[in-house]
Amino acid sequence: MNRKKFINTCGAAAALTALSPVISFSRSPFDLPEETKNSFLNRIQPITSEERLQRMKHAQSLMQENNIDALFLEGGTSLNYFTGVDWWRSERLFAMILPLKGEPYFIAPEFEASRAREQTGNAQLLTWKENENPYEVIRQLLDRNNLLNATMSVEESTRYFVVANLQKQIPSLELQNATVITAGCRSLKTAHEVELMQIANDITAEVFQSSVKQLKTGMTEKEFGKIISGQFSALGFQGGALVLFGEASAHPHGLVKENRLKENDIVLMDGGCSVEGYESDITRTTVFGKPTEKMNTVWSIVSQAQNEALKFAKPGVDAELVDEAARKVITDKGYGPGYKYFTHRLGHGIGMDGHEWYYLVGGNKRLLQTGNMFSNEPGIYIPGEFGIRLEDEMLITEKGARLLLPQAQSLEKMF
Fold first, then answer.
1. Per-residue pLDDT tens digits for 206-223
2. pLDDT in tens, 132-169
3. Whole-model pTM above 0.85?
4. Are 150 and 69 in contact (CB under 8 A)?
5. pLDDT tier, 30 (very low <50, low <70, confident <90, very high otherwise)
6. Do 155 and 63 sit in the same domain of this protein?
7. Out of 270, 312, 366, 375, which could bridge 283 as a Cys pair, Cβ 3.0 to 4.6 Å?
8. Is residue 323 within a helix (H) or strand (E), and if so which, with residue range?
9. Domain CATH number, residue 102
10. Residue 372 belongs to what domain range?
11. Any domain includes 38
12. What are the distances in angstroms from CA 85 to CA 3, 76, 219, 257?
């Protein structure tokens, strides 16, 4: 479980009992108008079966281009992306094989066949009993389809024991990494995907703006984090945020030590929610009280860096050059060289996973494409003092790049 997934599991109900007794609220910290919730829910249109069919056809066209005969997927995000099937990974194999031509095959434990059928519909479903070898079932399937000597691409997060058993049971298979297919499809967002991500971003902006009104002296980072996750829940969505107060903000992912909020502390919030499986990932840095001149100066430099990256990003540009554009602003203002104060990459891809292909980082010479979605998140982190990060989702369009949310205006005005 990654950092943000862990944060997002914080429940609203637990938040109420966990709040410090010295902190009181005139109303529930999770109260949000019903019309606000409905305004988001009414905009959501789920991904259709026709869209998923088009995704599989796109995958097959990439397979054709790359001389790949079949695609192998375990349960996980990519399987959900292509099929809508939501299946956890366990020691019992559940998988899909998509051949270069034709329909997909699903392989499932027989005792879970009814649940598998519920999600796979009329697709071809092969099952294996508890005393049977699922990889032998796959071998027989490939044999029937003249694919025993095939080149099979395996989704890149597939667990090692699955790959090892495939190779052991079918040594004639040539196994390859499937990133050219999975990333080739998922990194190019459709208009519908962008709209779902836009809704997730709009919800996050609403929650962040509402939550900061609940900040109180003496509150811990965890207490404020639970208020944020509770407000996402109140709107009907799963979400949360990493919260850092004061000097902890100088460490991009925080510290183990819990901090209590003091007057004039920096407050950094990094998080988002999921809408129909599509993620938002937003960071806003504000101040609880009055910012110092240095805080305002550093905030302004980070904002300029984000703007420079935004202006530079467009189709055909090397990914590393977008990172370089933002990093140069920060270095030229005295917070360099290199990664000294801006300690992480500029951005990551985002979609159904909070972090996915590709990365805006030095060394990545991949050219940006229309439909790519990245985080644009420069930061300056000063040990012993504070850190400031601004993060927005950035869509690459034919004309350049645009952010999904209004940029932060100052430490006091987050959107």
1. 999 999 999 999 999 999
2. 999 999 999 999 999 999 999 999 999 999 999 999 99
3. yes
4. yes
5. low
6. yes
7. 270
8. helix 319-332
9. 3.40.350.10
10. 3-31+189-403
11. no
12. 25, 9, 41, 39
